[in-house]
Amino acid sequence: MKSHLAAAALILAPGLAAAAETELSSRIDRVTVYPDGAVVTRLGKAELMQGASQIVLRGLPSAIDPASIRVEAKGGGSFAVGAVDVRATPGEAKPVLDAAMEEKLKVLREDKDKLEGGIAAIEAKRATIERFAQTGPDKLGPDGKALPVTDWPAVFDAIGTALVKVQDELRGQRNRLADVEAEIAALERARPQPGRPGAPKRDVAIAVEAPQPVAAEFTVSYRVSGANWTPNYEAKLTTVTDKPEIALTRRAEIRQRTGESWDDVALTLSTTRSAGGTRAPELQPMQVAFFEPPSVYESRPRTTAAPAPMVAARAKAEAEADAVAQMKAQESQRAARPAEVQVAQIEAGAYQANFQVPGRASIPQDGSAKTVVLTQRKAEATLAARTVPELEQKAFLEAGFTHEEEAPLLPGRVALHRDGTYIGMGQFGLVAPGDKVELGFGADDRIKVTFAPVRRRENEPGWLGQSRTDLREFRTVVKSLHARPVKVTVLQRMPFSENSAITVETIAAQTTPPTEKQLGDKRGVSAWTFDLASGAEKEIKLAYRIKWPGDRELTFEQQPLPGPSPVPLPMPR
User: Fold this and answer.
1) CATH code of domain 99-190
2) What mean pLDDT comes out for the span 366-372?
3) Measured between alpha carbons, how far is residue 455 from residues 117, 493, 494, 544 in Å?
4) CA neighbor of 370 nearest in space, from 379, 389, 357
5) Is the pTM here over 0.70, yes or no?
């Protein structure tokens, strides 16, 4: 017999309220983790007595959602499952302190007190010597009389020797105290935290009725907060072959602080967000009216964010050293056969994807990360170089590939490697199956980029009402040092205006026609894409003129990009 029950939809029957209780001993068998929670499934067995009774599952976390509790049951004979009663109970503090660690902490604290006392005594000794040194030789002789001049060097030497000795003692004591304090701090960080007395728990009471005693098996599932998983990726680009290739590994970091142990469980990761909204938000009507300026204007200083930091030279040197070490290790293990990596089984549906982690896993309840491999695949890559010379006079290698897996790539960080060298961290947005993905793999040192303003001419109005103009012209030169042709994209910008009194026009005679006048939805950003042969160079010119009323001043305000807010960058002057 099997019964399904939605806990929140039932009311406990009055006749069962005072029924005898039997505790259900259970274990966690499987867990489905979502980006914002988890569903835990427990298995348990109980011997049902004849008549009405209650099966009680005790000590569940207080963070469970009572409305999410589901009960399934089966047994060797007939019985009925009734209502489910969820009740809060005070938790019990568990003795989790380590006796050996506590004893060691006690000894260290006693040592700390002794060292602090010794330091205080030495400091008092030093103060006494310093006060003695402040007494002139004219008062150090017998009966407070002057000390003979011949004895002064001996006194000075004695005072100096005493101060040096005291200072050495003080330094040694302070060093020992610092070591003891560091050891105490390390032990306190590793010290198990005692259970919180009275931390609330949940008990689940399941009403049952059997015409005769029967052995029954129960499956209880519930949703709990305090758990999540986040994706992270690793992309390894290989360019030394005739066909460049990207090896993409998808991993998941799982964390949980639910208050219960997940030991040796079957683990499933789902892309569904179980705690988010289930419908699209309501859009409020918007009314447009004339702006009424306030009577007092507040002047606020304009702030400019600092430009994004450059990659440190030390990080580059460390990456190169890691690459050398990795190459040596690969040479020494050419005959070794790499181990196979277990990956998850994907169940892709129309609206979500589930990853069934192979085997069974244990997830600690202290919030530390458990990392599992979900998928691994290789894809043919297309290489290109991209440069933004106005901001940085260098080109960056980009590799693109098509995502052909069943499950989408969720937003997350990606560790980038190029020909065995770690390059840095990138970022994935949401990538659907079939979408094209482009990743940056660091600076391309075999492409030389130069950028310079060629001319700037701004007129000043000679009389009232005359217009002002600002003409700017820039020149970019890209040269390839590669042994084979390479595809290059140059990005440059020119201001745009939404005010009819300000006009911005391109000077066609001094501008190289762009491949794309507007790059996507970035207004004022143009792109020049071309194939550059080995040893060849390409010149890009851009010239524009801004015209506005002579009695007004201009401001240049950078517009936010789609997605996360970027760091503002300066306009060329």
Assistant:
1) 1.10.287
2) 88
3) 74, 16, 15, 11
4) 357
5) no
